[in-house]
Write a structure and sequence with these properties.
heterodimer; A: Peroxisomal Thiolase, Chain A, domain 1; Peroxisomal Thiolase, Chain A, domain 1; 2 domains; B: alpha/beta; eleven-stranded mixed β-sheet; 12 helices; 14 strands; 33% helix
């Protein structure tokens, strides 16, 4: 088990500094908005002005996690599906239209995917392991795999999160490239994982990714069998609107896109939802099935260990 | 558990694979002024084949962004003679920073100019899509991942692959990096004023900045267990890796190269080697005033008074960003295999503060047991790997 020592989420739910995200879930619609925490509590107003939403969210969530932990963090691992879109778009517009000598480097500097992790390490003055994974919808799952390796390799407190930001341009790509069944959103969720048991006894038991999978139910069954579980042992399945007989057969299944909207970091928010579901109950297992794209399937098993 | 390299491939402005050696030997750079209106002011390391020429020459089945196509060429070469075998869990991890930006920036320009959007033109934008395309070209479906830590991406992808083998998640993994030239990065480095309009001069006191390049480099890593099934010959061993954060500034490196020192020391620790065991360093050496000074300080701090032969090969290839670690790991493998020291082009005067002179000539017949290869990126990502006999 890789125990969850701290959680912080910014999303379209009331997820920041909340008591129980699962209990407070509300369906979102096209009018819903990203919550606005008091960023100034975490970031200086001067720095805040320069930071795009994805950087504000990622940095704030990370600093919030650190605040909850009060111990040294020895690895920073960030997943992002599409990275810093706002600064990317800004720089594209800039060099294509601005007078060529008046090009500001700020949006270029902040356009690379690892700006999130870089800003976190800078703010924390952290010289440890720092990694950025980007593999579309399974970027968070791959970050978790990396973090689990870090804990096996002897690191103690590993900060892992995923963030993606919405820009209006994405609407132009619907429905050809992106489903328009749910609103396009932004979200960021960060966690500190550790080998040490925590009071809640909640952690990640296992993670699996597969690619170009034809047989989703087969993958889920294998994953459950690997973890010595049956579908009936799973108390809740959180899924990204996945068509699956196995998911249907589990009476307690929830399509998390109704609460997170569509972005490639939504399974990180689902992990927070799963954690809070277990926290408020005597249930033991939640399975997250992230099949937002056909190209990548992510499975996360979240569990509460025996007392 | 030992991890071996059983294949390698690269493409850059100085050619593919072993072709690069003739450029080193002749001290011939692959960098020249761009040949279009928007690139003619830049000195660039261009791969002199169009996407279609590359696809035809290397018989590629898949297509995609230029980043993906360059990656397919290098990864396919690395994977040549390898087969997908049941029971050998095989993955692909690619480092890239621009992904499909070469396509996006063209399409977005049309959008800015008021033309209709064609959504499918953006389908290859995501970095993950380029890696998945490379994996599909190789027939790899067990595992795909993309590392994006700016210029250290490929080194970090190599390290990630090694750790995944060590942790028993994969048996064999194709790792490296790819990046194509884009107006986005050309304008980006120009806005930072670290582009040199002259030929770049790594580790020289007069250095003004970098020349951008494009290309890809990939290697195949295998565990002993995997080799028992694939029967491939180990070429070299991947002995050590280290990845740290400089945590100094969003783009600049700290003056003493603290993050770089940590990365090199970590790699030596994992390799269980002493600094004196390193025979050649393929330095990051971008030729920006900041990087080369910082890296020189870091090398001095780690190696003390007995600094091994070191050079930056970027005055030949240009700085290929996320691909640089992948291309340079292949150079490092060739250095070990053939006993080479690779030259540092365009050097005349040591940096005043650090007074280090890099390897200036191409030398054959040396005994090269261990090579350290550095890659450092924006955001403070520092990554070092060690390969050896």
């Amino acid at each position: 088990m890789y125990y969850i020592k701290a959680i912080s989420t910014i999303s379209f739910q009331d997820s920041f500094e909340c008591d129980n995200l699962y209990d407070s879930l509300k369906g979102i619609n096209s009018k819903s908005e990203l919550i606005k925490p008091n960023y100034k509590e975490f970031i200086s107003p001067l720095a805040l002005r320069r930071l795009s939403p994805i950087l504000r969210m990622g940095l704030t969530n990370s600093l919030d996690c650190q605040k909850q932990l009060d111990e040294e963090i020895d690895a920073v691992i960030v997943g992002t599906g599409l990275g810093c879109l706002k600064d990317t778009e800004k720089f594209l517009l800039n060099f294509n239209t601005a007078m060529s000598d008046l090009l500001s480097p700020t949006s270029f500097i902040q356009s690379t995917h690892n700006t999130i992790g870089g800003q976190i390490s800078l703010a924390m003055k952290n010289h440890g392991y720092n990694m950025t994974h980007t593999q579309n919808n399974v970027s968070f799952e791959l970050s978790l795999l990396d973090g689990m390796m870090c804990l096996k390799e002897g690191k103690s407190n590993v900060l892992i999160g995923a963030a993606d930001e919405f820009i209006p341009f994405l609407n132009e790509l619907q429905p050809e490239l992106i489903s328009d069944k749910y609103p396009l959103t932004s979200s960021s969720a960060f966690f500190i994982f550790s080998n040490d048991i925590v009071e809640s006894r909640i952690g990640i038991k296992n993670v699996h990714v597969s690619f170009d999978t034809e047989d989703i139910d087969g993958e889920i069954n294998n994953f459950l069998a690997q973890n010595k579980l049956n579908n009936s042992d799973i108390d809740l399945i959180l899924h990204s609107d996945v068509n699956s007989k196995l998911i249907e057969e589990n009476s307690n299944n929830l399509n998390y896109l109704e609460f997170t909207g569509i972005n490639f970091s939504a399974s990180a928010v689902a992990t927070h939802i799963a954690h809070d579901y277990l926290k408020g109950s005597n249930k033991k297992h939640v399975l997250i099935v992230n099949g937002m794209l056909k190209s990548g399937l992510g499975l996360i098993l979240i569990a509460k260990s025996e007392a | 558990m030992k991890i071996f390299v059983t294949g390698y491939g690269l493409i850059s402005a100085i050619g593919e694979g072993e072709e690069s050696l003739s450029a080193f030997k002749a001290m011939r750079t692959g960098i020249a002024n761009g040949d279009t209106e928007s690139t003619k002011a830049y000195k660039l390391g261009v791969v002199k084949m169009s996407n279609e020429e590359l696809r035809t020459k290397y018989a590629l089945h898949n297509s995609g962004s230029r980043t993906a196509i360059l990656g397919m060429v290098a990864a396919k070469k690395a994977f040549e003679g390898h087969k997908i075998i049941k029971g050998v869990k095989t993955g692909l991890i690619s480092g890239t920073s621009v992904g499909g930006m070469d396509l996006t920036e063209k399409e977005h320009k049309k959008y800015i100019d008021g033309q209709m959007i064609s959504p499918s033109a953006y389908a290859d934008h995501s970095s993950g899509v380029s890696s998945h395309g490379i994996a599909r070209e190789l027939g790899i479906s067990d595992f795909v991942n993309t590392i994006s830590t700016a210029c250290s991406s490929a080194n970090n992808a190599i390290m990630m692959g090694a750790r995944m083998i060590k942790n028993g998640i994969l048996d064999r993994v194709v790792v490296g990096g790819t990046d194509s030239l884009t107006l986005f990065t050309m304008n980006g480095f120009r806005s930072l004023m670290i582009n040199d309009s002259e030929w770049c001069r790594p580790f020289d006191n007069s250095r003004q900045g970098l020349n951008l390049g494009e290309g890809a480099g990939f290697i195949v890593l295998e565990s002993e267990k995997s080799i028992a099934k694939t029967n491939k010959d180990p070429i070299v061993e991947l002995k050590g890796w280290g990845s740290t954060s400089d945590a100094h500034h969003q783009t600049a490196s700290s003056e003493n190269g603290y993050g770089a020192q940590l990365a090199m020391k970590e790699a030596l620790g994992i390799a269980n080697l002493k600094p004196a065991d390193i025979d050649y360093i393929n330095a990051h050496g971008t030729a920006t005033p900041n990087n080369d000074l910082s890296e020189s300080h870091a090398i001095k701090a780690v190696f003390g008074s007995s600094i091994p032969a070191f050079s930056s090969t970027k005055a030949f290839t240009g700085h290929t960003l996320a691909a640089s670690g992948g291309i340079e790991v292949v150079f490092s493998i060739m250095a070990i295999k053939k006993g080479l020291l690779l030259p540092n082009l365009n050097f005349s005067t040591p940096i005043e503060e650090t007074k280090l002179t890099p390897q200036l000539t191409y030398e054959e017949g040396r005994k090269i047991n261990n090579v350290l290869s550095n890659s450092f990126g924006f955001g403070g990502n520092c990554s070092s790997i060690i390969l050896g006999k």
